[in-house]
TrEMBL record:
<comment type="similarity">
    <text>Belongs to the prokaryotic Ku family.</text>
</comment>
<dbReference type="InterPro" id="IPR016194">
    <property type="entry name" value="SPOC-like_C_dom_sf"/>
</dbReference>
<dbReference type="GO" id="GO:0006303">
    <property type="term" value="P:double-strand break repair via nonhomologous end joining"/>
</dbReference>
<feature type="domain" description="Ku">
    <location>
        <begin position="54"/>
        <end position="184"/>
    </location>
</feature>
<dbReference type="GO" id="GO:0006310">
    <property type="term" value="P:DNA recombination"/>
</dbReference>
<dbReference type="InterPro" id="IPR006164">
    <property type="entry name" value="DNA_bd_Ku70/Ku80"/>
</dbReference>
<keyword id="KW-0227">DNA damage</keyword>
<dbReference type="GO" id="GO:0003690">
    <property type="term" value="F:double-stranded DNA binding"/>
</dbReference>
<comment type="subunit">
    <text>Homodimer. Interacts with LigD.</text>
</comment>
<feature type="compositionally biased region" description="Basic and acidic residues">
    <location>
        <begin position="282"/>
        <end position="293"/>
    </location>
</feature>
<keyword id="KW-0233">DNA recombination</keyword>
<keyword id="KW-0234">DNA repair</keyword>
<protein>
    <recommendedName>
        <fullName>Non-homologous end joining protein Ku</fullName>
    </recommendedName>
</protein>
<dbReference type="Pfam" id="PF02735">
    <property type="entry name" value="Ku"/>
</dbReference>
<comment type="function">
    <text>With LigD forms a non-homologous end joining (NHEJ) DNA repair enzyme, which repairs dsDNA breaks with reduced fidelity. Binds linear dsDNA with 5'- and 3'- overhangs but not closed circular dsDNA nor ssDNA. Recruits and stimulates the ligase activity of LigD.</text>
</comment>
<dbReference type="InterPro" id="IPR009187">
    <property type="entry name" value="Prok_Ku"/>
</dbReference>
<keyword id="KW-0238">DNA-binding</keyword>
Length: 317
């Protein structure tokens, strides 16, 4: 468990108070940050705070400002800003409960683990956890941390509870402006069946460890090579995915090939590729089978039976 809690206080539900501690559930990934370097000297570049037409300024002369119109700012002193900060209360009051499906995914921001602060809090904590699980509800409240009030949700997670900070309504862009131009029509049943079959074939339990940031891995490899090469320039050859055919595709044919090949390229599974071809040939060539039957085929049939025994004897040998 992390040495320092993000928040310590109590969850309050009516007259029940539960002492808890909250810890970050995530950590910064393997992101690689770069510094700007002065190449001739190899030293990092620093930045000076300057005013246009004046030049560098002293730190004591800098105040915060909010731009109310272009080029016009309201200046605010630090003590003025501190005066309106919300006091970091030590109580998270649960004010509402909603069904799990009612909150859209883009409202969720960051998860935290919630644990009982001590042994005395265990019983009440477990009751809250199991009540949320039984009712399939999410608890909502507002948490005051570092002068900011955050909307949060609580839901059961294993033996504990997960708190997630939520975005406020004015922080979320409306989807309509992005989705309005998408046609509101249903696909054909054949296409839908093929797509759902493909999804079923590629369905599997989620294993986060199976996924990696390939760009970060490649950057780490490049840095290691560059270090061993003592600064020598290294250019990696990256294979770009090649375009297969025209941009205008036959969706039905593409889905059939994908389903037949287990979700991959059609050429990866020749056996699966042959099956649809035989069915198509059977439909198209059905009228042409009658002339083929009328043609004299007895002599070739006799040859095949005569040639069959040697072939068997070779297999046995």
């Amino acid at each position: 468990m992390a040495a320092r809690a993000y928040w310590q206080g109590q969850i309050r539900l009516a007259l029940v108070s539960i002492p808890v501690e909250i810890y970050p559930a995530t950590k910064s990934g393997a992101a690689i940050s770069f510094r700007q370097i002065h190449e001739p000297s190899g030293k990092p570049i620093n930045y000076e705070k300057v005013v246009q037409g004046i030049g560098p300024v002293d730190h004591d002369d800098i105040v915060k400002g909010y731009e109310v119109s272009k080029g016009n700012f309201v200046l605010l002193e630090d003590d003025e800003i501190e005066a309106v900060k919300i006091e970091s209360r030590k109580t998270l009051e649960l004010v509402q409960f909603v069904d799990q499906h009612e909150i859209d995914v883009f409202y969720f921001e960051k998860p935290y683990y919630v644990v009982p602060a001590d042994d005395l809090a265990d019983e009440a904590f477990v009751v809250l956890r199991e009540a949320l699980r039984k009712t399939r509800k999410i608890a909502l409240g507002q948490l005051s941390v570092r002068g900011r009030e955050q909307l949060v949700s609580l839901r059961p997670c294993g033996k504990g509870i997960v708190l997630e900070t939520l975005r406020y309504a004015d922080e979320v862009k409306k989807a309509q402006s992005y989705f309005d131009e998408i046609p509101d029509e249903k696909p054909s049943e054949d296409l839908l069946d093929l797509a759902t079959t493909l999804i079923d074939k590629k369905s599997a339990p989620f294993e986060p460890a199976e996924f990696h940031d390939r760009y970060i891995d490649a950057l780490k490899g490049l840095i290691e090579k560059k270090t061993r090469a003592k600064g020598k320039k290294i250019l990696e050859d990256v294979e770009e995915p090649t375009s297969r055919g025209s941009n205008v595709i036959d969706l039905m044919a593409a889905l059939k090939r994908s389903v037949g090949s287990g979700g991959g390229a059609a050429s990866e599974n020749p056996a699966a590729k042959k099956a649809p071809a035989k069915k198509a040939a059977a439909k198209k060539d059905a009228p042409a089978k009658e002339p083929a039957k009328k043609a004299p085929a007895k002599k070739p049939a006799a040859k095949k039976t005569a040639e069959a025994p040697p072939a068997r004897s070779r297999k046995r040998a």
